[in-house]
Design brief:
single chain; alpha/beta; Rossmann fold; Pantoate--beta-alanine Ligase, Chain: A,domain 2; 2 domains; globular
């Protein structure tokens, strides 16, 4: 595995891949790797000849009261996991490399970014799309792999790819979970044992929505009520929102159908977690 922090070296490697006729897949991460990230690598290796992973904790997507300073970082472990899973090039830039002095141009998303996560974290998605756009320009991937767990991020990146005419394809990988259903997240390391038990409320509430849909329920309000009923059993979970939305613009729906997205964001202690499901999919 090659590792570099230099844009010039990354571009030279990418140029060599193109000359050899090799397709490149890209997995952008903020490090603190877990099996969810590694599932993206597995998909990348299925989709292309070579795989690039970036590890960059992007300061633009953190608000002033968020956890940038304490976001988990362990580059040695990330490096070992990436190598073991078959990553060909690991790109680990410094913040000053991605945002040199005087940098001011940003990608400004449309109204899909203003609701749900965007309402709770103003400016978050401008930071996400800016760094993803820069990384797409640097890596020039044929395929980019993202996880379904960050469903609003995936939706906005897909919109950006279409609107800005990027010649690449997105591969969306289902959420990877612990055996008890908790969605894998780098932030899970913040949870105490008691908080982790409470955090199961997120996936349990989604399970209730799935079961109700499978049983014939088509009212979004009824599904949301079922979810709130489950959360009453988990008093340590404080929801920021439950959203039941169509998948293209994430606008709320009254009646659900196959493909409707059900998402939840909540705080468990000091830790903020997100999860979702797509109705009709396992």
């Amino acid at each position: 595995m090659i590792e570099t922090a230099a844009i010039g070296e990354l571009r030279a490697w990418r140029r060599a891949q193109r000359e050899q006729g090799r397709r490149v897949a890209f997995v952008p991460t903020m490090g603190a790797l877990h099996e969810g990230h590694l599932a993206l690598v597995d998909e990348a290796r299925r989709q292309a000849d070579s795989t690039v992973m970036s590890v960059f904790v992007n300061p633009l997507q953190f608000g002033p009261a968020e956890d940038l300073a304490r976001y988990p970082r362990n580059l040695d472990r990330d490096r070992a996991l990436a190598r073991e899973r078959g990553v060909n090039l690991l790109f680990v830039p410094e913040a000053a490399t991605m945002y040199p002095p005087g940098s001011e141009v940003r990608v400004v998303p449309g109204p899909t970014a203003d609701r749900w996560e965007g309402a709770v974290r103003p400016g978050h998605f401008a930071g996400v799309l800016t760094v993803v756009a820069k990384l797409f320009h640097l890596v020039e991937p044929d395929v980019a792999c993202f996880g379904q767990k960050d469903i609003q991020q995936v939706t906005l990146v897909r919109r950006m790819v279409v609107d800005l005419d990027w010649p690449l394809r997105l591969a969306v990988v289902p959420t990877v979970r612990e055996p008890d259903g908790l969605a894998l997240s780098s932030r899970n390391v913040y949870l105490s044992a008691e908080e982790r038990a409470q955090a199961l409320g997120l996936s349990r509430s989604l399970d209730a929505a799935r079961e109700a849909f499978a049983g014939g329920e088509r009212s979004a309000a009824a599904l949301e009520a079922r979810m709130h009923g489950v959360l009453e059993v988990y008093p340590g979970v404080s929801p920021d929102y439950i959203s039941i939305v169509e998948p293209e613009r994430l606008t709320p729906v009254d009646t659900v159908e196959h493909g409707t997205v059900v998402a939840i964001a909540a705080r468990v202690g000091r830790t903020r977690l997100i999860d979702n499901l797509i109705l009709g999919e396992r």
